[in-house]
Specification:
By secondary structure, the chain is an alpha/beta fold. It is built from 17 helices and 16 strands. It folds into three domains: 184 residues, inorganic pyrophosphatase (n-terminal core) (Alpha-Beta Complex); 130 residues, CBS-domain, CATH 3.10.580; 118 residues, DHHA2 domain (Diaminopimelate Epimerase, Chain A, domain 1). Helix 1 links the parallel strand 1 and strand 2. The longest helix has 19 residues. It starts with a strand and ends with a helix.
Amino acid sequence: MKPIYVIGHKNPDVDAVVSAIAYARLKTYTTNGNYVAAAAGELNPESRFILQHLGFEAPALVTDVGAKVEDLLDEELPTSIHPDATLVEVGNLLRAGKIKTLPVVDNDSRLLGLLTVGDVAQIYLDTLGNGEVNLRQTPELLASILSRKVGEVMKTRGLMLFERRETVDEAKKQMLMTRYRNYPVVDEDNRFLGMISRYHLLQMKRKKVILVDHNEKTQAVEGIEEAEILEIVDHHRVGDLQTIAPIFFRNEPVGATSTLVAECYQDYGLVLEPDLAGLLLAGILSDTMIFRSPTTTAKDRRVAAHLADLAGLDVQEWGKEIFRRTGHQDLDDLAGLIREDLKEYQHGNTAFAISQVETVDLQAFRYRQPDIREALEELCTRRGYRLMLLMVTDIFEEGTELLAAGTKKDVVEKAFGHPLEDGSIFLQGVMSRKKQVVPVIYKILAEENVLY
C-alpha cells in the first residue's frame, strides 16, 4: 500500500514535527491507510531533543512530493523470471499471465534484461522458418528451442528503463521518442520495481498528502502542486493552496497546531498515551513560547493542562527544560541558523522572508550582529528577497531583537514606529511572527502599493 504522507512545512519547527507524528498515528488508529509521518526538511535541535527524550523516531525526510516514475507503478509487482529458466517456463508464464514482456532478474531482484513475446517468436522463426528444415527433425529442433536458457536469449543492450526518482515529465518524453510497449523501473541499486507503459500515464496516481501546521504553497514541500492534498490541519491564515476536490480542512486561531491535533483525539474518544501527550504538549509549549506568545488562547492552556496530566509532566518545568536545552545556538553557521525556521511571503511583486530564532542568550546574538546582517543581505541577493527579517526572540525577557536587510528594510521603521539602529530594533513584548510581525509588514506593503 502506497504511503500517505502527513507532513509539515519546510524548515520544520517543533509544532510541525510533533503534529505530523501525532496526526499520522491518529489516522492509523481511525482509518485504513499507510499513514507516514514526514518532515519537509532537517529537524532542528529542539525537535531532536524532544523526540529523543520521549523515545520517538524522527519522521521520514520527504523533500519532494512531485510526480515521479515510482508513482506510476502498480501496487503488485509484475511477474519476473530468472536467467536459468528455460523457454518452456517462459511460455507458461506468458500464457498464464497474458503478458507481453518478462523482466529477467537475479536472486537479489536486480534487473538483468528483458524477454518479450516478440523475442520468443523470433527465436522460433529463426530456427524453423527458413523453409529448409527437415520435418522429421522438427521435434528435436523444438526440444532444443524449449530447453534454451533465458540468459542466453534475453536482451541486455539498448534497454530503455527508468529510475524510480525520475520525473513523470521526463518519462513521458522518452516514451514518445521510443514507443516501446513496456518500460522497466529500477531503484538506485538496479533492483527491479515494476513495469510502466503509456497506459500508466493516463492512470497516474498522485502522491497523497495531509498537511499540518501550514497551508501556503511557498511553505509547502516541493512538488505540492503535483500531489493530492487529502486534509489540512493548521492554525495560520488561509493561504493559496488549491485542491482537486473538497477536503477536510480544520483551521482555528489557536497558538499551535498541536492543540488541534490533541482535540482530534478527544473528538474520536481516544485517550493519548503518556509519551504522545508529552509530545503534543511540547508542540504547544514551543509554539506559544510557554504561553508568552500573544497567539496563546484559553484553549491552548486547557488542552496543555490535560496533556500534562496524561503525560505526568509539569507544564512550566517541561517548557523550561525544552528551551533550556535548545536555547543556546551555535552561532558559527549563521546562514544555517537563519534558514532553520525561515518562512517566505509574497505581496504583489515583493518577495520577503521572516526567520525566527528563540534563545535564552540574546547578548550572544547582539555581539554577532554585523555578521548576521551580512548573512541576511547575502540571502536577499541569492533568493531575490526585497526584505529579510530575523527575529531573535528571548523567551524569558519576552522581547525580540529584529534585524532587517534588503532594499525595503525601511518598511520595518514604518511598521513599528522606531528607527533601525545598525539594522536592528528591539521590540519589547513582541514574541509572535504570525500575529505581531507578518500582519504589520503586509499592512505597510499594502499601503505603499496604494500610494505608488
